[in-house]
Amino acid sequence: MPSDHPIPVTDRSAATPVRINGPAGEFEAALPAPPGVTILSLRMEAGQPGDAFRRWAVDDCAALLEALQDLVRVGGTAPNIAVIVACEPTADPWEQAAMEAALEAVRGAVHSLTPELGAAARLNIIACRPAGDPAGVAAALGYVASPGGAYVAGSTFDLREAS
Amino acid sequence: MLVTGAAGAIGSAAVKLLAEAGHRVIAQDLDPSALERLGDLAAERVAGDLRDQGHLDEIARVAGAEPLGAVIAAHGVPGAGSLASMSRERLRLILEVNAGTIPALLAATLPPLRAQGGTFVAVASQAALRGEPDNAVYCASKWSVRAWVQGIAPHLRGDGVFVRVLCPGRTEGPLLERALEGFAAEAGKTVPEYVAGILALIPLGRYATTEETAAAAIYLADPSPARPTVLATSGGEVPW
ipTM of this predicted complex? Predict the structure, then answer.
């Protein structure tokens, strides 16, 4: 089935991180791309007009799920997928709640897909602040890509407080 | 009291309990003919699609005619199915209806809720509390609602408005039947085979009745501050 989200994600060995909900920027460009890891970035930026919940928890999550659908439909070698959810805290409680809702939507999907897909795919989440410590994100990506991290599946690396 | 999804199993049970208790009830559902199933229950009826801002405006007008004691958001669509097999249209529908309409409904009803010191109860699911294979999109929608309620509730307490989320387990009714059919198909089992396995997972050994789940929503709809923000009623299947 052809992809209808903005960025078709069918290349499991993509060399660069793919931003799901907009054009990639400096944040994605600065991410390392360990071999064998497909990196999907869902970056939420506060202060945009419109309904934040709809934008992040509905539209962006749908785009992410569609991208994951593309990846699991490709078949072949089991992908190692890292979903990066990046957001800065905002003083607007409605936006902040929408950010948390979007992250939890991603977690709910990954918690479900991990037993659903079994060994056919490995999914993990890295929650971080885009202006935070990039070394922490890089370390998490490097760990899930390494032989020592091969047993990590369905986990959330919440680096937001550490950032 | 406003009940959405009022023609559904949980919603209609809530309307019945509230009407019998003497509350003014506004019953909302997508399909006007479905609302006829409420029979002669004393409830004002509004029909429309909660994704439509025009319908939300209508709800705001009807609900805003008087201070509003509570909203019980009991609408939703089932979402069983593997991610690989789900259509893009279904995927988006599940997220839009089960998640996207909840903040929009609160925004539409917030003025009359503030006027009364009312309560907004989102009826989510035990799928808001755990991952479930072949239910990823549904879980995503319910996890987001649960997290959103937990995030927004503290900010509205100062206005005298309580926002809470009910996470019920498997409740008798057509939604459950359709979900069980979907899960059974994904598991390659007959529905009776699948149901036997499911009942064994529930410590109480049965599904909730619609009246039990409606009663839980009404408990949370009480304007007392002495209620949890998140309540699981799962027969022990998903302790929380």
Answer: 0.92
